[in-house]
Amino acid sequence: MMRLTMAALAFGILFGLPTGARAQWAIPDGVKTVSVGGYPLAYQETGSGEPVVLVHGSLGDYRIWYAQAPTYSKDYRVLSLSLRHYYPERWNGVGDDFSIAQHAADVAALIQRLNLGPVHLLGHSRGGAVVLTVAKEHPELIKTLILEDASGMEGLLPETPETKAMAGEVKGLVARLRENLAAGDKEKAGQEFTDGLNGPGTWAKRSALQKEILLDNLGTGVDSGERGHITCADIAKFSFPILALTGERSPKRYPEGFAAARTCNPSIPPAIVIPNAAHAMNRDNPDAFNAAVLAFLAQHRGPLQPASATR
Predict the structure, then answer these.
(1) Fewer CB within 10 Å: C terminus or N terminus of the chain?
(2) CB 131, CB 154: distance < 8 Å
(3) CA 139, CA 240: separation in Å to the nearest integer?
């Protein structure tokens, strides 16, 4: 059964819905919320130990980590969150609080409100830009940073015909997504966006759950394409361990962004390439992806503590 939260009601009051009106979305069983500026930020929590916070990318939500959370939670406290306006909210695209800066502020607030301390923070794609911004604004909250085909480093690349083409690819994907949504063709919107990032035919191979997650978040397709303002100087200041991962068939802009980041901060190791995988590598090849992430986490894990000390 679904339950409406008091935090959702508070959101309606704080953000100008009619007095006494309720927010229009429900919170699934097993999902928690924390109020951030009156918004009920949803997250799923499993396991105990050092906290690992998982941040999804475009058209995703907390559910995309179905192949990670059960495995990581054997040794860690795993929090898989949904960014503002993603499922379980069914957003209509109205409002001015959908941005990398807002989402990064929300993630930082969640870490602080739950008193998690420095966390292992993992971001995928657009979520990579979010976690990079958290790291820039709140380095004290970061124990390690894990970047899975992270956006946000486009500004590090020199302006060449190739980089202009890469930027055009992103704008083209978003533009086609909007066109398909305006035409009311959700299936085509999901198919073209997925195939554009992961290669032709990917959508047809996606499971029912994978398609459901993307279709539930199509309203966030109003994304402007802005990916934060991470500079070389910002990355040079990062003093925490960083893991970069890219798929064997990922778009070139991601490994090139990682290579550029290494020129700013040579302590960042070369990106690990996940074989038999594209941009959605945590779903395409979860065994290889999880092995790389867990090896990195084990390397930077602190002294073991009793479970009671981690809450």
Answers:
(1) N
(2) no
(3) 8
Return the pLDDT at 103.
97
Q: pLDDT tens, 113-123? A: 999 999 999 99
DSSP letters along the chain, please?
Answer: --B--HHHHHHHHHTTPPTT---S--B-TT-EEEEETTEEEEEEEE--SSEEEEE--TT--GGGGTTTHHHHTTTSEEEEE--TTSTTS---S-SS--SHHHHHHHHHHHHHHTT--SEEEEEETHHHHHHHHHHHH-GGGEEEEEEES--S-GGGS---HHHHHHHHHHHHHHHHHHHHHHTT-HHHHHHHHHHHHH-TTHHHHS-HHHHHHHHHTGGGGG---------HHHHHT--S-EEEEEETTS-THHHHHHHHHHHH-TTSPPPEEETT--TTHHHHSHHHHHHHHHHHHHHT------GGGG-
**pLDDT tier at 173, thresholds 50, 70, 90:** confident
pLDDT at 21 over 90: no
φ/ψ of 144, rounded to 5, equals: -145, 155
Residue 220 pLDDT: 85
Q: Length of the chain in residues, anyone?
A: 311
Rounded to whole angstroms, the Cα distance separating 52 from 300 reads 12
Report the relative pairing of strands 119-124 and 142-148 from DSSP bridges: parallel
Which two three-digit tokens encode residue 17?
């819905």
- The predicted pLDDT at position 163 comes to 62
How far apart are alpha carbons 122 and 150 in whole angstroms? 10
pLDDT tens digit string along 239-261?
Answer: 999 999 999 999 998 999 999 99
Calculate Rg over the CA atoms of the chain. Answer: 19
CA distance 146 to 258: 12
